[in-house]
Amino acid sequence: MSQPLTTNSVLVEEAAADGDSSAAAPPLFDYHRIDQKLLQNIVYDALVWSTLNCLLVGDKSVQRSGRVPGVGLVHLPLSLLPGPFPESHWKQGCELAPIFNELVDRVSLDGKFLQESLSRTKNADEFTSRLLDIHSKMLQINKKEDIRMGIVRSDYMIDEKTKSLLQIEMNTISTSFALIGCLMTGLHKSLLSQYGKFLGLNSNRVPANNAVDQSAEALAKAWSEYNNPRAAILVVVQVEERNMYEQHYISALLREKHHIRSIRKTLTEIDQEGKILPDGTLSVDGQAISVVYFRAGYTPKDYPSESEWRARLLMEQSSAIKCPTISYHLVGTKKIQQELAKPGVLERFVENKDHIAKLRACFAGLWSLEDSDIVKKAIENPELFVMKPQREGGGNNIYGDELRETLLKLQEAGSQEDAAYILMQRIFPATSPAILVRDGNWDTGHVISEAGIFGTYLRNKDKIIINNESGYMVRTKISSSYEGGVLPGFGVVDTVYLT
Amino acid sequence: MSQPLTTNSVLVEEAAADGDSSAAAPPLFDYHRIDQKLLQNIVYDALVWSTLNCLLVGDKSVQRSGRVPGVGLVHLPLSLLPGPFPESHWKQGCELAPIFNELVDRVSLDGKFLQESLSRTKNADEFTSRLLDIHSKMLQINKKEDIRMGIVRSDYMIDEKTKSLLQIEMNTISTSFALIGCLMTGLHKSLLSQYGKFLGLNSNRVPANNAVDQSAEALAKAWSEYNNPRAAILVVVQVEERNMYEQHYISALLREKHHIRSIRKTLTEIDQEGKILPDGTLSVDGQAISVVYFRAGYTPKDYPSESEWRARLLMEQSSAIKCPTISYHLVGTKKIQQELAKPGVLERFVENKDHIAKLRACFAGLWSLEDSDIVKKAIENPELFVMKPQREGGGNNIYGDELRETLLKLQEAGSQEDAAYILMQRIFPATSPAILVRDGNWDTGHVISEAGIFGTYLRNKDKIIINNESGYMVRTKISSSYEGGVLPGFGVVDTVYLT
C-alpha cells in the first residue's frame, strides 16, 4: 500500500542549516524560469515516485490495460508542481464540504421536489428519465433508507472577474480521484521537500489530503452500521476501467485495515447473479451485500441493455446501503444544482442562515432554458454563458456561436429538448504557468485549474456518524484549448499551493 | 513506499471461526488441482497487488522502459504460490549467511591468494584480467579499506539425489532482487491470508523477509561510518535498467528513512564527472561520495570502452566505501568458489571448525580443468557435470554432449583457454508444480527453484557493525527447459513454503 512521503530531504535540511530557508524566498510560480537540468531531475524523480507509489493508470495504447491488471501501466498525466491558490478561497471550499454533504442529504429526502424539478428533463433526456422511474418506484413503495451515506466532491473554479470561488458541479455518484488526489499531494510534498529551496516553495503550503482513507473509513463505518458481519461491500464497476487501481486500493484498505471483504461486479453481472432475499438482503453470487459502492452507473454507456437497469433497480430495492441512493444520484444533476440556485429554494432545505449565505456565495448564475429573458440575453451575448447537458460526464458543453445557434434552433423547434440543458454563467478562471508531464515527457504552458473538495457523510436515522471535508483533487488543463465554463474532460492531475 | 501486506482477511477469520483451520488441512501443492474460478481470482488479485505495491519492471516490448521511469510498466513475471522447501534446509541456508559474509571478508584480505588463484583465469578471460589489474594496483599502493561492507547473496538448490542443500554461486557485486524478494513475500503472504484455507496453506509458513530494509540500513550505516554529513551515496547504474524501481526504492528508503541523499551515475558519467580530491575523497559532479553502491560493473558489457575502466579504477583508488571493493568482487568469481572447495583451503580463512563443516556441507563438487582425472571422468560421463565460465551473468553454461566436445577440443588445443571455465558437479534439483504468471497470463508446469539468501555485512577495522542474514529471493523456472547445473537466466520470481 502506498503512503504519502513526508520526510524532509537532506537538501532541505542543508538549506535550513545554510539559513536560506524557503519560507523567506518568494515562491517561484513562473515555472518556465526553472533551470533545465534541475527541471529534468524533478521530472525524473516525479516519474520514479509515481511508479513506486502507484500513481498509475492503464495505458490507452495498450488494449488489455483496462481489463487485465498489472499490464500496460503508465504514470498518470500530472502537473509537476502545484498551482497557486488563495488560502481564503481554499478555506471557503473546505468549510463548504460538510454543508454540501448535509444539503445533498436533505434534498434527497424531498422526493416531490426531485420529481417536479426534473419533470421537464424527464421528457428530454432518456437517461434521467430512467433514473426518475426508479426513484418513482421507490416513492411508490415508500422505501426508507435509514442509513444514508455520501462520498461527494464539489468542484470549484476561481472566477478572475469576480475574484470569487464558484461551484462548477457537485458529484454524488462514482466520485473518483480520492486516491489520485492523495498520491498527487504525496508527490508534490515529496518534490517540494527535495527541491523547494530552489523554487522558493514550502511543502507545508500544499494542503494535507486524507480523501482515500476517509472514503474507505466511511464505507467501513456504513458496513458496521448495517451490522451483518458476513456481508461484503459490492463495488459496481465498468467493464473496462483504466483507473482501476484507485478502486482496488480502496478495496485493499477495506480488507487490510478494516477486515472487510469487497467484491467487484459489473451491472450486467449483478443482473445475472443478484437477487433479493426474503428479508430484503441483497445477495450477489451467493454473497450478502451490506453496502453498494457505485464506481459505474453514472453514464448511459453503463446501461447498454435492460439488464443493467434491472440491476440498478434490484440494488435500489434491497436493504443494502447505497453509495449513493437513486435520490442522492438525482441531487447531483445540473438541473437540481440550478433549482437550488433559485431564490428561496435553499431555505426549504437549510435552516442555518450562515450556511445558506455560504452556499449562495459559491453559486454561479444557473438558469433553466424556460427563462426567456436569460435565453434572449444568451443569444445576444453567448460569450457570457455556457450551455450544459443535465447529465454527468463532461465534454458536451456548448459555447459561443454554437451556443447561440443551438438556442435559436431550440426556440424554433418549440420542443421539450431545451429541458435537457441548462444555462450557466461562464466563468473566467485565472491562468497560471505549469509543467505538464505525460507519458514520460514534459511540456510547459499556461493552465486553468478546477479544485474538487471531497466530503464524506454517513448517518443512521437521526444520528450523524460522519460529516466532514476529507481531502481534494485538482484537475489542470492547458488554457489555450479551454473553451470556458467547465473543463471539457480533464487534462492532468494537480494539487494547490496556498498563497 | 510499498509495504508488505500482513493483515488476515475476513475469509481466513471465517475459516478459523468455522473450525476448518488451515493448519489442520494438508498443504495443496498440486496446484493443477485448484478450481479454475478460484485460480482466476487468485491470479487477478496477484496482478492487482503487484501494481499497488510496485512489483513492477519495465516491459521489454516498450523501448523506453529501461531509460524513462513511469512508462511501459508491467508486473514482474511471478510464481503465483510458493514452492515447497524443507524447513531444515531453509535454516541451514540462513545460518550460512553470516558465515559466508565473514568468509568473503577474510578471503578479500588475502590479495596473494586472489591473484594466485586467478592467475590462469587472467590469461583466458579478459574481463577477470582487467579486474585483477585494478586489484594489483591496489596491492601495489598498499590500499587499505578499513570500512568494508558486503551485500551478498548465496544461491542454493536442493539436490534430489543427495537430499542436500548445495551452493550454486555467491554474488558479491550488484546483488539484486532484495526488494523483489520482499515484495514477493508480501504478495504470497497476502494471497495465502485470503486463499490459504482453500489450499491448506498457512501464510506463516512463508518466511519473513527483510532484505531490502537491511540493504538500505547497511548502506546508511556505512555512510555514518564514513562520517561526512555532506557526502552522498553513489549508485553505479547501467544505461538501461528495466529493474530500476528496486534501485530507486532503496534510494527512497535512504532519503526518507535515513535522510541520506543518493545520486545515480553510469560508469561513463563517473569517468566524465568524477575526480579524487587531495584528501582522497571521491567527488562526482561536485558531490562528495561516501559509499559507492554498485548496481553495474559486473559484466563486460558495462565496460564498452577504456572510459568505464578508468571510472572503476578511480572509485577504487578513492577513500569512498565500496560495496563491493575490487577484492570482494573477485571473491565472488567461480574460480575462487572452486578454490575454496579444495581440501584444506577453507581452514586458511576460517578458524571455527563448526563453520568450516557447515560451509563444506553446502559445496557441490567444483574442479579446475587442470584436474585431468576429473576432465577424463567428465568426458566419459558428461551428464554428471556442468561446465561454467568464470564470469557472472549465467546463460553460458555447457552441458552434455557439448560439454564433452568442448573438453576434447580444449585438450587438443592445449591452450590456456581451459582456465576460463570450471567443472561443477551437476545438481539434480527436485521439481514441483507451479502456476507461473507472466504479462497478465498464467500457465502451469513443473518447475525447479533456486533460493538466494541475502547477507549484509559491515565492519570498521576490528569492529563488526553488521553481520546478518537479511532475507531471500527465489527464482523458479519450468523444468522441461532446464538443462541442469544452474538456471540459465531466470524464469519467474517466487518464495518458499516451509515443509
UniProtKB/TrEMBL annotation, chains A, B:
InterPro entries: Glutathione_synthase (IPR005615), Glutathione_synthase_a-hlx (IPR014042), Glutathione_synthase_C_euk (IPR014709), Glutathione_synthase_N_euk (IPR014049), GSH-S_sub-bd_sf (IPR037013), GSH_synth_subst-bd (IPR004887), PreATP-grasp_dom_sf (IPR016185). CDD domains: eu-GS. Residues 232-331 form the Glutathione synthase substrate-binding domain. GO terms for cellular component: chloroplast. It is found in: Plastid, Chloroplast. Mg(2+) 3 binds at E169, N171, E392. Mg(2+) 2 binds at E169, M170, G332, E392. Its cofactor is Mg(2+). Mg(2+) binds at E169, N171, E392. Mg(2+) 1 binds at D155, E169. This is Glutathione synthetase. It comes from Glycine max (Soybean). The lineage of its organism: Eukaryota, Viridiplantae, Streptophyta, Embryophyta, Tracheophyta.
